[in-house]
């Protein structure tokens, strides 16, 4: 309990230096007040009174009372701190994720899509004050989750993202368009898209450059991530008779020029993730680049503890006076 006590006026503790002075003064006074008589024998004067031996108790009681008063002057108190946070600059984020068959390539462990979902989940957990939405795209695109502050819903939707929900292909423009549509009506001060793909745009239904211009008009920033190792990767190349994928080595082709252009046009940045560790570093960097401003309010509540010390000092002085006026009256 004592470790929670603080003193508002600790300078009063210097008065405790007076206590040793008072003790010396009392001892000197006691010596001068004691009379002496030299006789050959004190056999007839011997007394068994214990009150005379307890007389210093009066002085001890007075010292204790003085100590309590000095401690009370130092104002012991306990402090209770409560905090309240307020988001002053929120960020709306849409993660546009490529779910084409090439995302099952095994150059990242266990494959690109599984590695992405793990890293993206950690990113979402680190953004408790932002709204996040999910967009999936392949040969077409759809909204998996609109922007929401409920991270449980977003994480659950992220776990459910899998290959086979959409027609195969890589329609980067459609993925970007769907993400822009999710953010264009947003009132957030900062709006960003994290656009991830591991391939080359093979759909001209919606041109990615047109959507990047539209994103710029709505003040939406895009961070583009190219996912895949340099060289060849073990990737799906055909179907087996049972419907499973047959894997083989395939050249990794990422339209880096397009992704860099999208990032540049919207004021974002392009990244290349060649392995699991690099992918984690990229999401950590985006997390640092896009900071949510939080205002923290602290409320302090002080509870004064000096009153009990004043009461104690009063009791000690009252006890000292009572003893002095009764039991020790004949010795004073």
Outline the structure in words:
The chain is of the alpha/beta class and 332 residues long. It folds into two domains: 2-30 and 51-81 and 299-331, no CATH class; 91-291, Rossmann fold (3-Layer(aba) Sandwich). It is 38% helix and 27% strand. It contains nine helices and eleven strands. The chain has helices at 18-33, 56-73, 112-125, 151-160, 172-183, 208-217, 256-266, 276-289, 306-325, and strands at 5-7, 76-89, 91-98, 131-137, 141-148, 190-197, 220-227, 232-239, 245-251, 269-273, 293-304. The strands form three sheets. Strands 5-4-3-6-7-10 form a six-stranded mixed β-sheet, with helices on both faces. Strands 1-2-11 form a three-stranded antiparallel β-sheet. A hairpin with a 5-residue loop joins β8 and β9. α6 runs parallel beside α7 (256-266). The longest helix is centred in the last third of the chain and has 20 residues, at 306-325.
């Amino acid at each position: 309990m004592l470790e929670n006590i603080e003193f508002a006026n600790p300078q009063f503790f210097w008065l405790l230096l007076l206590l040793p002075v008072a003790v010396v003064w009392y001892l000197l006074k006691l010596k001068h007040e004691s009379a002496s008589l030299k006789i050959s024998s004190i056999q007839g004067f011997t007394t068994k009174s214990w009150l005379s031996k307890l007389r210093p108790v009066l002085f001890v009681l007075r010292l204790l009372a003085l100590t309590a008063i000095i401690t009370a002057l130092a104002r012991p108190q306990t402090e209770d701190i409560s905090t309240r946070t307020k988001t002053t600059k929120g960020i709306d984020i849409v993660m546009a994720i490529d779910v084409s068959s090439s995302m099952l390539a095994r150059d990242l462990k266990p494959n690109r899509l599984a590695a992405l979902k793990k890293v993206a989940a950690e990113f979402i957990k680190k953004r408790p004050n932002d709204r996040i939405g999910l967009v999936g795209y392949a040969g077409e695109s759809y909204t998996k989750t609109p922007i929401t502050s409920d991270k449980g819903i977003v994480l659950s939707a992220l776990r459910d993202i899998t290959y086979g929900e959409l027609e195969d292909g890589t329609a980067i423009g459609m993925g970007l368009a769907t993400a822009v549509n999710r953010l264009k009506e947003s009132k957030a001060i900062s709006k960003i898209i994290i656009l991830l793909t591991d391939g080359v745009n093979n759909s001209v239904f919606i041109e990615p450059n047109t959507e990047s211009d539209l994103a710029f008009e709505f003040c939406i920033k895009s961070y583009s991530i190219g996912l895949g190792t340099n060289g060849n990767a073990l990737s799906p190349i055909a179907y087996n008779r049972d419907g499973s994928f047959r894997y083989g080595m395939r050249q990794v082709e990422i339209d880096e020029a397009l992704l860099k252009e999208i990032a540049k046009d919207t004021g974002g940045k392009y990244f290349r993730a060649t392995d699991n560790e690099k992918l984690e570093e990229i999401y950590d960097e985006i997390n640092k680049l896009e900071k949510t401003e939080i205002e923290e309010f602290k409320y302090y509540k002080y509870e004064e503890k000096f009153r009990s010390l004043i009461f104690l000092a009063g009791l000690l002085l009252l006890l000292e006076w009572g003893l002095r006026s009764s039991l020790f009256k004949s010795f004073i």
